[in-house]
């Protein structure tokens, strides 16, 4: 196997130099962290499932005209993506009160919000990903007013599409986090969806029972974490009968 240059190791993924210029390989790990790295663990099979789930959702979003970094899956844990200049923001879209929004404003978890709320957090582990306003973002040069316009419009379109997609498989999309990046071609710049969309960064509740099917099961020591991720994949129609072990293909290629 050819040695590849590792570019970055994050909490959930490793980035390698891709086979062509301007591409990267995202390797999905089973490592799980919560509360800004204070809680650490592993969720067996998570990397395999998130690789598939993120691929599936990015492809569906691509079909409705959302530009994404996704190129193709390489194997069970790896996908090829276009290298982008990551905008250092976590864009959080909320439909139902949960997590930090419930805590900060004293709104019980599960309360539907009168309209979707988009929040921005500055991506910085050292600073604990502080919440920031558009004023901070433009003043500190993390994104321009035009970038923010694009981020907001893309985020709301993604939210509408994913809300419907998950509803179709009996899942309520409570909230989720996105990352975007700048893709340059010549003089042109386009903002594209990057990183991943998976139960690691979405709150997904079973529509009927309200049962959590996401990383909150890990954060809150609820058990059944692996099963919850598998069930999301199964409902999306991307998990083979025998579970993630039945996925065909080598663990790594190239
Ligand atoms: N297409 C891309 N180009 C460059 N960087 C990317 C791309 N997609 C995601 N990233 C970055 O790669 C990292 C993915 O690894 P992850 O484990 O999620 O890291 P982190 O611990 O920083 O969240 C993130 O920092 C993310 O911003
Ligand atoms: Mg991350």
Description:
- With 254 residues, the protein is of the alpha+beta class.
- It folds into two domains: 101 residues, Phosphorylase Kinase, domain 1 (2-Layer Sandwich), CATH 3.30.200.20; 122 residues, ATP-grasp fold, B domain (D-amino Acid Aminotransferase, Chain A, domain 1).
- Helix content is 27%, strand content 33%.
- The chain is built from six helices and 14 strands.
- The strands form three sheets. Strands 8, 9, 10, 11, 12, 13 and 14 form a seven-stranded antiparallel beta sheet that branches. It has a five-stranded antiparallel beta sheet with strand order 1-2-3-7-6. Strands 4-5 form a two-stranded antiparallel sheet.
- Helix 1 runs parallel beside helix 6.
- The termini are close together.
- 35% of the residues are buried.
- The structure holds adenosine-5'-diphosphate and magnesium ion.
- The site of magnesium ion has 3 residues, from loops.
Bound molecules: adenosine-5'-diphosphate, magnesium ion
The CATH homologous superfamily of the largest domain is termed ATP-grasp fold, B domain
Topology, number of strands: 14
Q: Into how many domains do the coordinates divide? A: 2
Helical content (DSSP H or I, runs of 4+): 25-40%
Average pLDDT for all residues: 95
Count of DSSP-assigned helices:
6
Q: From the helix content, strand content and strand pairing, which structural class follows?
A: alpha+beta
Q: Globular, elongated, flat, extended or rod-shaped: what is the shape?
A: globular
